[in-house]
Write a structure and sequence with these properties.
The protein contains 19 helices and no strands. The protein is mainly α. Among the domains are: about 80 residues, no CATH class; about 90 residues, no CATH class.
């Protein structure tokens, strides 16, 4: 006869850590912490209740990393969980939070993907429209079938399609599929440095751009460790092939990621290295973008003088260049993007009124094709208006960004809206604010 299931033992230590937050508020904090370290978990109030009741005796690996990030210096035991060895292989009642084996699909990192949150008691979980399906990527031949005619054109076409889809719909639904294409492209690369002007050199350049595109998808979807790895791969490819254009692009993305993850000195150094790589390429627009990336690092360091100098250089170079003098990947870099980067700098320096003014202008200037960037600038506007003490306008901008999230999947934009919601909670009696908070809940869940 099977042994009876272990009785539930409430996790009082975990309950104490929640403090005065409601289960839903604590779940939102867990999701924010996950995004900070590049994890994705579907934590909701029901999950928190299962942990506190003792139903979940040990979290899965993704939740473990998030909880240890939230409460540094503490072990799982300090958080009230049982050792993993004590629960591995048991059933749902006495085991960890993993769902039945048949319902788990591997996530991009190889860990089990989190199941969707269960439907609330009052009815089915809210849903939102899915983005349009991605056109098929060009087929890449298996490595064993490669010929002297390397498939650089097919890899370049895959990069083009990834960027097109990302501009319109964001990164979240595209990352895993693009990663598969990158793995295929890697297998096609020759093991020796390519000769200048050869097919192999063109394939290296295309594969490097593909690594950067996949890295950007990781970046925009909150998988920061993956993004860092892909950017480093592209930089190594650029160095191997002696390709300054790819090197400048890799440094631009590295500087952007460093700024987004709070590594200010690295952001400045990477942008400066990119400017050196770009010096001989003859593209004022590329040099402008790298100057703006450098400004972002200086702003994060709180150096207003250096920020202003770098922004001035970015503006002068932008005015001097034309849309045609930049590489193809820079199609997003117009006046709207530069203005949006200026807004980020002023926000980092604490001038939220000025930041809001620049973000508002970025929204007005943005090409409608770049839906994700329009959502990003609108979220920036909401964030800065909230920080500047304008709750009605902030909430209205936030609702506009939420409307764009019906067709855009970007963890970065969602994280910004979560931050805006936190700022606006002190005006929770405000009608506009309540409408924004109500509309945000199904998007963030």
């Amino acid at each position: 006869m099977a042994a009876p299931p272990d009785p539930l033992r409430p996790n009082t230590a975990f309950r104490a850590l929640r403090g005065r937050l409601s289960p839903g508020e604590f779940a939102a904090a867990v999701r924010r912490a996950a995004r900070e370290i590049g994890e994705q978990v579907s934590c909701d109030a029901r999950y928190v209740g299962r942990v506190e009741s003792g139903e979940i005796r040990c979290p899965n690996y993704a939740y473990e990393r998030v909880f240890l990030h939230m409460f540094p210096g503490r072990s799982l035991g300090d958080l009230g969980f049982a050792p993993r060895a004590a629960v591995r292989g048991r059933g749902a009642r006495g085991g960890s939070d993993a769902p039945p084996r048949t319902s788990v699909r591997p996530g991009p990192s190889g860990e089990p993907a989190e199941p969707p949150p269960p439907a609330p008691a009052g009815g089915p979980a809210p849903t939102r429209p899915r983005p349009a399906p991605l056109p098929p990527f060009p087929a890449l031949p298996p490595a064993r079938a490669r010929t002297p005619e390397f498939p650089a054109a097919a890899v370049a076409e895959a990069v083009r399609l990834i960027r097109l889809h990302d501009d319109r719909h964001g990164a979240d639904d595209l990352y895993a599929r693009a990663g598969c294409t990158l793995r295929t492209a890697r297998a096609l690369l020759p093991e020796t440095a390519p000769r200048p002007g050869s097919d192999a050199e063109r394939l290296h350049a295309a594969a490097g751009e593909l690594a950067l595109s996949v890295g950007w998808l990781a970046h925009d979807s909150g998988r920061y460790a993956d993004a860092r790895s892909h950017y480093a791969e592209a930089l190594a490819t650029a160095r191997l092939a002696d390709d300054p254009a790819l090197e400048a692009h890799a440094f631009s993305n590295t500087a952007f990621l460093a700024r987004d993850t709070g590594r200010a000195h690295e952001a400045v150094r990477a942008a400066q290295a990119g400017r050196r790589a770009a010096a001989a390429l003859g593209s004022d627009r590329l040099r402008s973008l790298l100057a703006a990336r450098e400004a972002g690092g200086w702003a994060l360091l709180g150096d207003s003088a250096a920020t202003g100098e770098a922004l001035a250089a970015a503006g002068d170079l932008f005015a001097r260049g034309t849309a045609d003098d930049g590489p193809e990947w820079m199609s997003f870099y117009g006046e709207a993007e530069l203005t949006g980067l200026e807004a980020q700098c002023w926000a980092a320096l604490g001038d939220h009124h000025r930041a809001a003014e620049r973000a508002r202008r970025a929204v007005l200037l943005q090409d409608p094709h770049f839906v994700r960037n329009t959502a990003l600038f609108t979220a920036e506007l909401a964030e800065n208006l909230a920080a500047a003490g304008h709750p009605d306008e902030a909430a209205a901008a936030g609702r506009s960004a939420l409307a764009l999230l019906q067709e855009v999947r970007s963890a970065r934009v969602r994280a910004m809206l979560d931050g805006t919601a936190e700022r606006l909670r002190r005006w929770s009696g405000n009608t506009e604010v309540e409408a924004f908070l109500t509309n945000l809940r199904p998007i963030s869940a």
